[in-house]
Fold these 3 entries.
Entry 1:
Amino acid sequence: MSDSSHLLDLTSQAAAVQRLLRGRSEPDKLEWVAARGRLERVATAFLNARPTYRFVSTVGMECVFFINGDEFVFIGGHTTFTVNE
């Protein structure tokens, strides 16, 4: 996946995105994702929670996530999960 690639569904493309963005700062990762859809920070009810984001791709696929190091941690269905390579 090159820097010019399209991001149709962050959840299903997470392993490739993580490989591509490995070692970059969190602001750089967020900038890369935001350039490929709509990214917004969402409020959380937990004190000291990590910044959490909602991403909507150009084809309307949505997900909610936070970043932990080089991993995207997805939130949904009463669970959190990561995508292993």
Entry 2:
Amino acid sequence: MAAVGFVTVSAAWAGDRATSLPTAPAPAKSLSTVQRHLAGSQAEVKRLKQDLDRQELDSRRASERLKQQDQAIAELQRRLHELQAGPAPGSR
């Protein structure tokens, strides 16, 4: 009889313990909050991609301008060397 009483008390105690244990924590943020955050993050990523594309385009344009300027400088240097060398033989 004592054994049956012990099992009954143990089962009741275990049942009380199970109900008193904390359950899984509720999600900290609701789904709509997470979706809004995700949408904001996606918009920020899109804006950053556009900024990057614009900067890359600006960089390509600047690179092309520098290339053209280098070519112009090289042509001017070539002409300067020709002038400094004097008239070509037989041009007089």
Entry 3:
Amino acid sequence: MVWGGDEKTRERLLEVLPLGSTLDELETEANARSWQLFFADDRIFKAGEEHHFGNGCRFQGGVSRNYIVAEYGPIFTTSVESLWMFDEVGKLGDVCGRSTTDAL
């Protein structure tokens, strides 16, 4: 699911959980796939504000969830994070992704 860069990973994640999905659907899917909840953000930010996650990710006006969807690497660990952004009525408005690799 996580090969081909951040945009390809985003496309695959949206195949699993399309825009308009609910937070409950995300949490059910995340549990089924054993995704690690990295950060739960229940605060509400204004829609359109830039998120510190980067990669052009902007708040949708509701809650967000950050899941680690993959970790791999025998020497340096690469973590693939997904940031799921919900709107004010609780529907998925956007998902962002990024990969980070531990280094010495």
